[in-house]
Amino acid sequence: MSQQTSAIELLGYAAASLTTLSFIPQAMRTLSSGDTRGISLSMYAFFTSGIALWLVYGIFTRNGPLIIANAITVVLSGLILQRKLEDHLGEKRSNSKAGSRKAGRKHRIIRSRTRPGQE
Question: Is the pTM of this model over 0.90?
Fold first, then answer.
């Protein structure tokens, strides 16, 4: 391995370390608080997919910095994406139940306003 190659590889490891480390505080905050309201589901789905593809690319090219950085990041982003999906599906269920209760309540209100014999 030439001196230039090892310097370039070190540069790759430094870049990979910084980008991965910069992601960890947000991941830890989201996972510890459970709050995903400020996270875009579509953005995280695309982001996690992209990181997974970079990981596969790193594996095929045997690129150490890409493999290490993206392996760590895909795990963290996958956990956050899973939490966001659970919250999103939970909100949808809650909204559909609330919507059906509101519809039922509205229907009862309308029925309660009609007098017997005026239907």
Answer: no
